[in-house]
Amino acid sequence: MSKLFRAILAAVATATAAIAPAAILEAPERQTREWNFRVLLDDSEIGYHRFELVQEEDRQRVTTEAEFRVGFLFITAYRYEHVNEETWRGNCLSQIDARTDDNGREFEVRGLQQDNAFALMTSEDSTELDACVKTFAYWNPSILKEDRLLNSQTGELLPVTVEEISRETLAVKGEEIPAVRYRLQARNLELDIWYSYDEQWLALESIVKGGRKLRYELT
C-alpha cells in the first residue's frame, strides 16, 4: 500500500474556474484558486487532498496538503501526510519545500532555481537539474506536454508518457461537465486525469494494489 500511494501522489504534488471560481484578494493582479478533493479507496472515503494557488503578477504560489487513513478492523493500517509549498514563474518551478510522512517513513524535498539550473536537496542526496522543472502539478495542464516530471515526495525526476484517452461527460458536484480524459504513466504509476474543455482539473483516478480504485472527487 505504501509504495502505491507514494507513486500515486507523485508530486504531490502541488484549483477550477468553472467549478471553483477565482476570488480576488487585495488587488486585480492577485488572485486565488482552490481545489478541495475528497479521496476515496473504492467506495470508502480515506482522506483529503487540498490545493491553494495564489497568482501574484508573474509568480504562482501553490500550497498542497494531503492526509490519508486506511483502516482495517478498527485499526489504522496505513497513514499518509504530505505538505508541499511550491513557487512557479511561468510554467517552471522556481522553489519547492515538501515534507512527507509515509506511514512512518519521512521524506523532505527542497529546491531552488539558480542561474541556469535547479538545485535540489532531498533527505538522502543533492543534485542539479535543468533550469525549467515541473512537478506532478495536476492543476497545471502544461505538465501533459512533458516527458519528465519531478516527484515532490522523493525528489526523483521520472520519465512520463501522456495520452488522450477519451472525451466524455463527468459528474462534478452535481453538474455534468464535458471533459477530456488523459492517461499518465510513469514508473509504478498509471492514472487517469480529467480536465474540462477550458483545461480546469476535475478528477483523478488510479487502480492500485488488489484492483482497488483510488479516486479524487471535487467537493
| Percent helix range | under 10%
| Total domain modules | 1
Mean pLDDT: 86
Oligomeric description of these chains: single chain
State the shape: globular
* Cα gyration radius (Å): 17 Å
User: Which runs of at least 5 residues are low in confidence (pLDDT < 50)?
Assistant: 1-27
Count of helical stretches: 1
Structural class designation: mainly beta
Can you write the helix and strand succession as a string?
A: HEEEEEEEEEEEEEEEE
N- to C-terminal separation?
25 Å
Summarize the biggest pleated sheet.
Answer: 14 strands, antiparallel
Strand content: over 45%
Strand runs, count: 16
Compose a concise summary of this entry:
By secondary structure, the chain is mostly beta strands. The protein contains 1 helix and 16 strands.
Protein architecture, described:
- With 219 residues, the chain is mostly beta strands.
- The protein has one domain (2-155).
- The chain has one helix and 16 strands.
- β13 (175-186) and β14 form a beta hairpin.
- The longest helix has 7 residues, at 2-8.
Per-chain topology:
Elements: H1 2-8, E1 23-24, E2 30-41, E3 44-56, E4 59-72, E5 75-89, E6 92-102, E7 105-114, E8 117-122, E9 126-130, E10 148-150, E11 157-159, E12 161-172, E13 175-186, E14 189-196, E15 201-208, E16 212-218
Antiparallel strand pairs: 1-2, 2-3, 2-16, 3-4, 4-5, 5-6, 6-7, 7-8, 8-9, 10-11, 12-13, 13-14, 14-15, 15-16
Overview features:
single chain; 219 residues; mainly beta; 14-stranded antiparallel sheet; two-stranded antiparallel ribbon
